[in-house]
Amino acid sequence: MDMVKLEHFLDIINRPYFYQDVAYGTRKLKLESGEILTMPNVVRIVTRSTMVSQYMQFCSDENFEPLSRTTLFRILEVRGASQQKALQGLDNTAADGVAAFDTLEKIAAQLERMGASSEWVKTTKRNLKDSKRYLKTQYKVHCKEERDCADHCKSFALSDSKDKDFRNVCHDDHNTTCENCGTLNHVTQEIEEKLQDESIECDLQQRGDILYDTTKAKQHIDDWKAHILRSENQDLAKHDVLKIINAESILIFMDWAMKFVQLKFREK
Question: 140 and 12 in contact (C-beta within 8 Å)?
C-alpha cells in the first residue's frame, strides 16, 4: 500500500466532522506483527460510504490520486469506531439544526391543510431534505480559504467587519452562488412568503405562531451552518500547530464540562 496515500486518507478522515471523541475508554488494535496499538474510543458521526464519497470528491478537487474505494472501505473496517445513532448529548448545535429541518417540514404539512397546494408542499419537503443532506455531508468539503461563493469562503465568513485586527482581506468578488446554499435560502424564504399568501386560511394568532417557529428554525439552521464552517477552520488550525510542534513543546486542549440544571426530565 502506498503510505503517502494512506497518510493522506487518514489525515482527512481524522477531522472532527467525521469523528467525535468520547470522554472515557480505549480500544486496542492488534497488528499482524503482534504489536498492539491503544486508541481512544471515538464515535463515527457519518456512514462509511459518506466518508469515502466525500474523500473522493476532495481528492478530485485537489487533483490527488487516492487509493481504490475497496481499500478505503477496508481501512475504515479495521479502524474501530462506534456508529452514532443520535446527535443528542454530542453536539447540541447540530441537533438543533437537524430538528429545525423537521420543524419546517411539519410547517409545510400544516400549510397544506390551510390551503397550500400539494405540489408546493411536495417540492418544499424535497428541497428541505436535500438541504439537510447537503449540510450533513458536502458543505464542509466546500469550505476553503478563499472561494467565489461567500457561503464557502472562510476568509470572508470568519472576518470581523468592525475590528481590523480580526479581519482577513479576501481577494475574491464572491460573484457566484452555490446552488445548494441558494436552495436552502430560497426554501426558508418561500415558507415565510407563503404565510402571507391570501390563500392560506388561518387566524392572526396561528399565523404569528407559525412565523415564530419558522424564524427560530431558520436561525438554528444558520447557526449549524456557521458551526460547521468554524469547526473546519479550527481543525485546520490544529493540524497547522501539530506540523510545527517540536520535541520541547506540548499542545494542550482545554475543554469545559458544564452541568446545567435540567428544565425537564429528559432533554438533550
Answer: no
* Of 133, 135, 121, residue with least CA distance to 190: 121
23 in Cβ contact with 13 (< 8 Å):
no
Instruction: Give alpha helix (H) positions in 114-172.
Output: 118-137, 139-142, 154-157
CB 57 within 8 A of CB 141: yes
Answer yes or no: are the C-beta atoms of 37 and 65 closer than 8 Å.
no
**Predicted structure pTM score:** 0.66
Residue 155 in grid coordinates: 476568509
What is the separation of C-alpha 195 from the centre of its chain, rounded to a whole number of angstroms?
29
Residue type, 150: A
Q: Which residues make Cβ contacts (< 8 Å) with residue 5, sequence separation at least 6?
A: 65, 66, 67
Cα–Cα nearest to 39, from 90, 91, 82, 4: 82
- For residue 231, the Cα-to-chain-centroid distance in whole angstroms is 9
Helix, strand, or coil here: 248?
A: coil
Helix (H) or strand (E) holding 103, with range, is helix 92-113
Rounded to an integer, what distance in angstroms lies between the CA atom of residue 69 and that of residue 61? 17
Taking the chain (268 residues) in consecutive chunks of 10 residues, what is each chunk's mean pLDDT? 87 73 68 80 76 86 88 82 53 83 90 87 91 84 77 84 83 77 86 81 82 91 89 82 87 69 59
CB atoms inside a 10 Å sphere around CB 59: 17
